[in-house]
Specification:
There is one protein chain. It is built from one helix and ten strands. With 132 residues, it is mainly β. The chain has a single domain, classed as Jelly Rolls, CATH 2.60.120.
Amino acid sequence: MIIADKAKLAGTARDARGEGWESLRLLVRSDGMGFSMTETRVLPGAVLRLQYKHHIEACYCIGGAGEVVELDSGTVHPIHAGVLYAPNAHEQHEVRVPADGAALHLICVFSPALQGDETHGPDGSYPPPDAV
């Protein structure tokens, strides 16, 4: 049985952050589940250009509002509580949160599992699992 208490994970290596985002890694590779789960906040005013080349991701919004833009097509998807988005073909995308709004609050699942302390590289991806 795995029990993850976010209060005990705060401030540890599982409490990752970068420009415009913060992510508490609730389940990571070493937990042995085959996937990872994060509680992630994209901060007001953030525009994150992402492309998970080595992972697939599903994000379920539990608070705040923003949008996901598919960069190849320009298609814009509004994101708010109750909406899931999943770039299932490694699409390059942007996550945007209005500067005058609340943080976009997401629960995210990654496969393969994240190690837990990754941050995005210059291309918006995490390193391949065998590189960490």
